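User: structure tokens for this one?
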Amino acid sequence: MVLIPAGRFRMGSDDQFAYPDDGEGPPVDVDLGAYWIDACAVTSAEFAEFVSDSGYVTDAQHFGWSFVFAGLLPDDFPPTQAVKDAPWWRKVEGADWSHPEGPHSSVETRPDHPVVHVSWNDAAVYASWAGKRLATEAEWERAARGALDGKVFPWGDEFEPNGEHRMNVWQGEFPNRNSRADGFLGTAPARSFPANGFGLFNMTGNVWEWTTDWFQVDFRSRDRRRDPRGPARGADKVQKGGSYLCHHSYCRRYRVAARQRSTPDSSTGNVGFRCVCDVPGKVAD
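Assistant:
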């Protein structure tokens, strides 16, 4: 884990390309105490250790299916139900954390990739087992910024500085053609691309990451906060960071301020998580 020092940062953005319903703004000054955060998203190998030790069964396994990106399925894969407004998502029976594209697939060939098909419920149980917890949205965003306050990405404002790929996102024309210019079609290993200023990997792109906060569009109501927590209740949890499916043509959420919502029991092939630990003596609002 990496120690994030106490400090103030500017949370959120007034980016003209942000989606109003996401509630990225207005930006607010936030003061946070110190905390520890995983350098990488939790990997399939780490999650496998947890399952082996605890016997835990994920939400996707209980449901018997999860959502898989169609472009990762074999050409001869039988037709399955698609999401109405996002037909690139397919309901695949038997897809879960250990079989990311369904029964024909396995994480054994990618133990160092982020675990996916984990719900918020699953992530929270893992974090407790590991003696950790999920980050608040503020903690996640401060860590992702890598001490570069007000920048679009963990490394600055340029999408590909000097032509260098810094994250795993969709390259080409979504959803039909991915040139794989950044080296990947689906997930990349959790420790890919250069780390940010705090030494954290893949804080944008690769997989969305769960936070502990409930989602609310207009939650940022004060100009300054100390160790803020999300609303006391809600229907959806906040996810941060974007994924390998983000593309400027439809989902420019591969930015540190970006956010989206999802129900705590939902799982897909592009969502994972990382954990944090408190520093002794920290007191929250």
